Amino acid sequence: MFPALFGNGLHCPYCYRSFRAREIRFRCSGRVGTKKRCETKLDRVLADQMGDHDPQYPVFDGDGRKSTAVHDACYAETHYRVCPRCHSQLPVQFGQIDSKLIALVGAKDSGKTVYMTVLLHELMNDVGARIQASVLGADASTSTRFENVYQRVLYEKHELYSATRTAVAEKGGRRPLVFNLTIRGRNKVRSTLLSFYDTAGEDMNSERSIDQNVRYMTSADGIVLLLDPLQMRGARPHVDADALLPKLVPAEDSPSSVLANIVKQLQGSTGVKAGKRIDKPIAVAFTKMDALQSALPSGSPWHRTPSESAAFNEPDSVEVHRHMQALLHEWAGRNLDETLANSFTRYRLFGLSALGESPRLEGEDTQRVSERGVQPHRVEDPFLWLMSEFGAIRRTTKPAGE
Ligand SMILES: Nc1nc2c(ncn2[C@@H]2O[C@H](COP(=O)(O)OP(=O)(O)OP(=O)(O)O)[C@@H](O)[C@H]2O)c(=O)[nH]1
Ligand SMILES: [Mg+2]
Ligand SMILES: [Zn+2]
Ligand SMILES: [Zn+2]
């Protein structure tokens, strides 16, 4: 039931390195024990790996399979368990509950940061209510950062983000956002840890990619690859006249080069044999579909609002997949689709709009969300497909549109 406990062991949701349960270490609680109380100081490992320079209580070895340990130096008990590789504090139920790392990747400007924010916001609100799920930050830093940095900019200030800084620019790497998703099933409650790492588009470019980024993709249980249709030559003539049309990016950042890099990195580091495909589900989604929706036929399945059911609607998704496949051939040629089919055992195409409407340009370079606010369409589809691939949510075969 708990795949994260077997095989190669566990994966840290913060640094994505693997280890076994017994290797988990503990951090002193700093409480008063029967000996001299411990003091805080710089944790070199945490500083080097995660860029966190705050003084911390010492890390010590214990039986990592247990939930508590007593620190020999002070005799105080602690329930803070940390990753043996990066010293990040592990979520409370880590190791006991299912843990899924979902890698969100895509070229620069493809819409990753906006998508991640809107998806999580939806999971915390409407979509969460629909699938009877709740989402909570698994650590204090995730909760405050999501609230103050991500959510506030888009939903309160109604502004778009500036480009995400590359992990190289942020010394020591960036901390992923880790959430605990709890789904109420018919007779049991199922928890899944979700880890999202907001990559910068540049990190996808092979020469500049760094360790953490490659680890992030190779240890992921599922991948969401975002493709920007506004970067596809065949789509650009169909873009709404009043939508913001970005400049064409250089060839090395094009959707097909990014996909080629991802395949290369995954094949290189997971040891996939020549001629074999990568056995990780990959959801490939066109973002910014609002800018192209008037070019779609009125009967397009993309326009439909997926049913209110808690389950993942397979027939609806397959119809959208076929439509997106036809669009992909028309907009970017067959090559991308061929690469996906030849490289992955399971892939599915999606179309989504995180904002629902094109942002407006204010002044030289500030972009604002439309006055009507954020109105996402089909942002949950790729996520629900992955969750259904993991067996975490049900799939229904009820005909689409019913
Ligand atoms: N029309 C439309 N534009 C969008 C949507 N989502 C994002 N955009 C546009 O895409 C731009 C980039 O979005 P981001 O989420 O910052 O892209 P990113 O992939 O995180 O970019 P980097 O962090 O630089 O790699 C935004 O400034 C918007 O102009 C959408 O749903 N609809
Ligand atoms: Mg970004
Ligand atoms: Zn770690
Ligand atoms: Zn101590």
UniProtKB/TrEMBL annotation:
Any Pfam family hit: DO-GTPase2
Transmembrane segments: none
SUPFAM superfamilies for this protein: P-loop containing nucleoside triphosphate hydrolases
Double-GTPase domain segment(s): 101-294
InterPro entries to which the protein is assigned, alphabetical: DO-GTPase2, P-loop_NTPase
Protein name stated in the entry: Double-GTPase 2 domain-containing protein
Organism (species): Lentzea cavernae
